[in-house]
Amino acid sequence: MSFPLRIAAAIFGLIVIAVVLVTTERPPIDGVQHGYRGTAMDEIYNPRMLAAQAASNVIPGGLAPASPNGPKAGAIYKNVKVLGDLSVGQFTRLMATMTNWVSPKAGCTYCHNGANFADDSLYTKVVARRMLQMVQHINADWKTHVAGVGVTCWTCHRGNPVPAYIWYENPGPEAPQGMAETGTGKNLVSTVAGYSSLPYDPFTPFLEHDYQIRDQSTTALPTGDRQSIKQTDWTYALMIHFATSLGVNCTYCHNTRAFSDWSQSPPQRVTAWYGIRMARDLNVNYLDALHNVFPPARLGQLGDSPKLNCQTCHQGAFKPLYGVSMLGNYPELLMIKPASAETASNMQ
Fold first, then answer.
1. For the chain, what percentages of helix, strand and coil (3-state, to nearest 5) are there?
2. Which DSSP symbol is given to 256?
3. Which of 197, 231, 308, 325 counts the most CB atoms within 10 A of its CB?
4. What DSSP character marks residue 288?
5. What is the model's pLDDT at position 218?
6. What DSSP designation does 204 have?
């Protein structure tokens, strides 16, 4: 082999090693038995990775609770549409806390006109008001998914004005014109499906639209179950997103001996079923509904609103913030306005 070829081979070898190191996990790996013996239902955890993400799941400190007594915020301040029933003390405490949760660097003026706090000219204020309603809606109406733990602004934002994990409809790379097959979303690198060649946007059909999440078949021979292979691929891409977002295996929600059988599945599968519907509800009725409020810079390549998925809240943990609830310190986020006051048009 000539010297240039040896150099090229060495460089190629180094690239392969780098790819392997970046895309695989090195020991030690811990396993926790999650189901019946002999069913391979173990959850695999990497202690090193758990330690690395522990800091992002710490609950921030907060202000002491305020008294519910005294004048109401709606009677003292102008243009308070969601939290007007709180006392002035409760209202001020929650606003200061939200600033630390969402915009610690920009401060109050991230959402408010510093010269006139009642002004709604900043889109961020309109969005924040609607997000408050969304949080209250989740805590009141989606206990089937969040149970008593609930969510706060911190669950998604973690000190960032825009949550770290959001998504837009992905049109994929530009395709050549002519007789090429219509794009199926496959056979390209899918970052949301573990860098596999599965579909690169499983969110639009399942977490925004109400497409059926189905495997190819539940029986050995055709018996009326006619789910397509393409539909199966989209389902697998979504399932990989679930596993990555929660830091778990497929066995967290499924029994390995009968993946499709609900009666043999762990309880987490029911919780996930409600979570899919919750994400769809929030994307359609809260985030998509704010499309005309977001400026062009906050919209996606196809002009759609930013949306949420499992990773937005979970961020690698099987339960957001490892199941620690913040609602006990912020009961204001359990309140909810009547449905007539929840439309996006009322918030603009």
1. 45, 5, 50
2. T
3. 308
4. G
5. 67
6. I
